[in-house]
Amino acid sequence: MNLAPLGRRISSWHQGRVKEVAGEFRSTIDTITTDASKALKRIERRVKKNVTKSRLLQNAVFVLLVAPLVLPLGVVMAAYSVTPAVAPVPPETVTPVTLTLSEDIVAPTSTQASIEVVESVYQANERVKQEAARALALAKPKKVTFTASAVELMTMAGIPQDQWVYVDFIINHEAGWNGTLTYNRQGSGAYGICQALPGRKMASAGVDWESNTLTQLKWCDSYAKARYGSWQNAYHFWLKKRWW
Asked: Could you tell me which residues come within 8 angstroms of residue 225 by beta carbon, excluding any fewer than 6 positions away?
């Protein structure tokens, strides 16, 4: 019996079966490989996410642990911080200004302030004395001990005739020739025909300064010459200030 054809058939079938099995196996391996590759990618993505979460968690833990230590240290450093030095700005060039002061302007000084205080105290004392003198004058009325005409008085006082018009003007605008006992005519506490302030200054012209018109005129004459140089100058001053 010739078995060669049967052997060829079996061999041919066997080869075909082997190829079929090999193809199935190859297909199975490809499927497994594809699935494994996808699984590996999924695993890789999960690993990356977990690593990111792990890092965030580590950072959060670090902040929570370190922050309580860093904040007090920052507060202490801020409390003891030193302001950084700033470089000085060079001064701008300024054109010097020359101030011209008039003769009437005087720079205030501590000495002047002291003098003003003393003068204020002196003025207060003078007012008290003047009120006392006024009360005394009212309590003890005086009489004029010497009377004469204006011309006679100016002649006896030794006043030059060219000054009489100025003398007459000032006397008549202060208390008048009959105002020997006039007190406080302008509300200043002055006394006498030319309203000396205070009135007791006229004692330098005579002890009877309170009641003698001639004594008062002599003092007025010395006052006009000492303060203004002449009755004429005193007259011009009176016109400007309404007092002398």
From this structure: 231
Six-digit token string for 189? 């506490």
Nearest by Cα to 171 from 199, 193, 154: 193
CA–CA gap between residue 11 and residue 31 (Å, rounded): 30
Phi then psi dihedrals of residue 30, to 5 deg: -65, -40
Q: Which region holds residue 125: left if phi is over 0, alpha if psi is between -120 and 50, else beta?
A: alpha
Rg of the chain on CA atoms, in Å: 63
Mean pLDDT by 10 residues, the chain (244 residues): 59 69 74 75 73 69 63 55 52 48 48 60 75 59 78 95 95 92 83 93 94 96 96 96 91
> Residue 49 burial (CB < 10 Å; 0-12/13-18/19+)?
exposed
What distance, in Å, lies between the first and last C-alpha atoms of the chain?
A: 180
Sign of CA dihedral 56, 61, 67, 70: negative
Tokens encoding 9: 């058939």
- Check the CA dihedral 202-205-207-210 and report its sign: negative
CA dist list (Å): 46 to 49, 50, 53, 73 = 5, 6, 10, 40
C-alpha to C-alpha distance for 91 and 133, rounded to whole angstroms: 65
User: Which two structure tokens, joined as six digits, stand for 212?
Assistant: 């003698």
